[in-house]
Amino acid sequence: MDHDEQNFLGNHSDEFIEMAYSYERLERIENPDGYGKRVGDCGDTVEMFLTIDGDTLKHVAIQIDGCLNTVACANTVASMTEGGSLESAWEVTPEKVADFLKTLEEDHFHCAELSVGAFFLALNDYRQKSRNSWKKSYTH
């Protein structure tokens, strides 16, 4: 392990390290129930794919083109919301993500905002698809 890697590991919480190096949710889902994509001012890109069963977020998958801070934040959003209700999913905030990670540096808080923003776009996409589905099945 080189000096820079030791510094990085020593400067971050176990939660941050776990989320930054977790790849279990990195996948692209074809025809997701909800999809959201945001590109940050920094150039990082977060995509969120939702699989929903009834009122439950069954699976949250992510695709990321960005730094480890963005990976950690997107994984945290997915981890915090997967398995929960759609209603409670709207309660995730960048502050809650940063609090969970403990060592997200202030100058990377925008990574939490980017990840939560992509997630909210995915939730909204699901909401719109649900409404359109209802409209299509409605007959006069």
Element order, helices and strands? HHEEEHHHH
Q: How many distinct helices?
A: 6
Backbone shape: globular
CATH architecture: Alpha-Beta Complex
Q: What is the strand tally? A: 3
Reading off the top of the CATH hierarchy, the class is best stated as Alpha Beta
What level of helicity do the residues show?
Answer: 40-55%
Explain what you see.
The structure is a single chain. By secondary structure, the chain is an alpha+beta fold. It has a single domain, classed as Sufe protein. Chain: A (Alpha-Beta Complex). 50% of the residues lie in helices and 18% in strands. It contains 6 helices and 3 strands. Strands 1-2-3 form a 3-stranded antiparallel β-sheet. It is globular, with a radius of gyration of 16 Å. The protein starts with a helix and ends with a helix.
Describe this protein with a few key phrases:
3-stranded antiparallel beta sheet; single chain; 50% helix; disordered C terminus; 140 residues; Sufe protein. Chain: A; 6 helices; alpha+beta
Strand-helix topology:
Blueprint: H1 3-10, H2 14-20, E1 34-39, E2 45-53, E3 56-65, H3 68-81, H4 86-89, H5 94-101, H6 109-137
Antiparallel strand pairs: 1-2, 2-3
